[in-house]
From TrEMBL:
One of its GO terms (molecular function) is polyprenyldihydroxybenzoate methyltransferase activity. O-methyltransferase that catalyzes the 2 O-methylation steps in the ubiquinone biosynthetic pathway. It is an enzyme of class 2 (transferase). S-adenosyl-L-methionine binds at residues 39, 58, 79, 124. Its EC number is 2.1.1.222, 2.1.1.64. Pathway: Cofactor biosynthesis; ubiquinone biosynthesis. NCBIfam families: UbiG. It catalyses: a 3-demethylubiquinol + S-adenosyl-L-methionine = a ubiquinol + S-adenosyl-L-homocysteine + H(+); a 3-(all-trans-polyprenyl)benzene-1,2-diol + S-adenosyl-L-methionine = a 2-methoxy-6-(all-trans-polyprenyl)phenol + S-adenosyl-L-homocysteine + H(+). This is Ubiquinone biosynthesis O-methyltransferase. The keyword Nucleotide-binding does not apply. It holds the Pfam family Methyltransf_23. It comes from Simplicispira metamorpha. The keyword Lipid metabolism does not apply.
Amino acid sequence: MNQTVNADPAELAKFSDLAHRWWDPESEFRPLHQINPLRLEWINGLSPLQGQRVLDVGCGGGILADAMARKGAQVTGIDLSTKALRVAQLHALEAQTPDIEYREVSVETLAQEQPGSFDMVTCMEMLEHVPDPDSVVRACAALVKPGGWVFFSTINRNLKSFLFAIVGAEYVLNMLPRGTHEYAKFIRPSELAASCRAAELDLLHTRGLEYNPITQRYWLSADTSVNYLFATRRLG
């Protein structure tokens, strides 16, 4: 695993500046609040969360981690944004969320500390924000038990995703702060699939995430041309 921290200081600063708004459903994080029920039910439908030990990589303010804990999982959320983690911890205390803890540690470091320790690993909306996404995929694979599930979500790299995820979401609809995403860091499904294979993760399910700006509704579909999700299992 990498000894250097696999993080972009500018990315950490960007999300740290917004940390106090993580749990405001009308804030810049509104899209995460809106898609959370979809991704939660998809994950739970493939691998029921009740009683599982789950790691949420790049947990931010804890929106998904908190929801998984409320489904009965024992959840650890990790991130490198101190401010976001403080917000997550405070929310867990105020909401009395059961069986949840947060740590400021890189996924690569945790993989060295606790290999094969988790029944499930989730890494959602994070790969497109790090310098070396392959390193994150390898670490996620190392952290899950053989046969355990690893879930990813990220953004495809093509003209449509540039128009929808950057021009549309950041500049036209103002759904996200400008500069949230960098096109060059988007990841094609074929590239992520290759990373998963190299990490001995078997890709079993793929879904797309679509959005209608008129109805302001999200839904899962077979269209992976912009946002997409992978469900993989560790071989062995």
